[in-house]
Amino acid sequence: MAALIGRDLLGLADLSSTELQELLEMATQLKSQQLKLHSNKVLGLLFSKASTRTRVSFTVAMYQLGGQVIDLNPNVTQVSRGEPVQDTARVLDRYLDILAIRTFAQQELEIFANYAKIPVINALTDLEHPCQVLADLQTIQEYFGTLAGLTLAYVGDGNNVANSLMLGCALAGMHVQVAFPSGYAPDAEIVEKARAVANNKTEVVLTHDPKAAAEGAHILYTDVWASMGQEAEADNRLPIFQPYQISEQLLGLADPQAIVLHCLPAHRGEEITEEVIEGSQSKVWDQAENRLHAQKALLASILGAE
């Protein structure tokens, strides 16, 4: 993966289809311990949003590679006191080897990437969640043995996860069908970018009908109906999104061998039922574990681990 050494990952479209597949293969080999890599580097985590899986999986991945991690909580750095982003970026560039950022605005991430010479990874913004989708695709490939030609149905809010899923599926040669209520569409520019990547070889479909999206799908995927920063809207969103719940009835419309994914945390009884997330078709816990392996592959590739 020499092509990724020193590069940023600000969104999934930063990868080619070949690079994506090679990352997934490396993640699989790391998980099975067929491949062991070492990188004595320092990763900085600058997280403005709460995190369980992203924080722990990045930390463990870097430690397992033989590196170190510095948790740069904004509340105990000068970022919380108004230091300009570009100043923080130029200083961290002198201390760290790589930086993973979890924040609200994609623009903030891009400023860091512009002012820091070290690689910058998008660990989540309001626009995209590329590292999550790397793990999602690894999980799907583990179960089906392939990605090309499969259909993923995402039902719910057209949020950052939906955006990255459209790009990731297009890169992987998969069809993706996104069902959402009126007024909660995915980002229009991301939709066009995903369709350009798909290049008429696969479909990127938008619909308001969750049943139509789920029909015959190989993967059903959902996320919370109110993301971080939208908590005040949660109660108002409940009746709007209720028809988009992944229930046993909706799962029954999918392919008989379909799997269910959720990036977590899950609000059981809202976007997904208890029966489905705990059912035999749920691969949610494998999906969560694969955050570790996919991100380890990403770190190793960018850092040039040996």
UniProtKB/TrEMBL annotation:
Query: What sequence ranges are listed for the domain Aspartate/ornithine carbamoyltransferase carbamoyl-P binding?
Result: 7-142
InterPro entries per the UniProt record, alphabetical: Asp/Orn_carbamoyltranf_P-bd (IPR006132), Asp/Orn_carbamoylTrfase (IPR006130), Asp/Orn_carbamoylTrfase_sf (IPR036901), Asp_carbamoyltransf_Asp/Orn-bd (IPR006131), Orn/put_carbamltrans (IPR002292), OTCase_ArgI (IPR024904)
Q: Which GO terms describe its molecular function?
A: amino acid binding; ornithine carbamoyltransferase activity
Q: Where in the cell is it found?
A: Cytoplasm
Q: Where does carbamoyl phosphate bind?
A: S51, T52, R53, T54, Q78, R102, H129, P130, C131, Q132, C263, L264, R291
Keyword annotations for this protein? Answer: Amino-acid biosynthesis, Arginine biosynthesis, Arginine metabolism, Cytoplasm, Transferase
Q: What is its EC number?
A: 2.1.3.3
Q: Name one GO biological process term.
A: L-arginine biosynthetic process via ornithine
| One Gene Ontology CC term in the entry | cytoplasm
Reactions accelerated catalytically: carbamoyl phosphate + L-ornithine = L-citrulline + phosphate + H(+)
In this chain the Aspartate/ornithine carbamoyltransferase Asp/Orn-binding domain maps to 149-301
- Pfam families under this entry? OTCace (PF00185), OTCace_N (PF02729)
Q: In which pathway does it act?
A: Amino-acid degradation; L-arginine degradation via ADI pathway; carbamoyl phosphate from L-arginine: step 2/2; Amino-acid biosynthesis; L-arginine biosynthesis; L-arginine from L-ornithine and carbamoyl phosphate: step 1/3
Identify its protein family.
Answer: Belongs to the aspartate/ornithine carbamoyltransferase superfamily. OTCase family.
Q: What is this protein called?
A: Ornithine carbamoyltransferase, catabolic
Which species is this UniProt entry from?
A: Nostoc azollae (strain 0708)
Gene for this chain: arcB
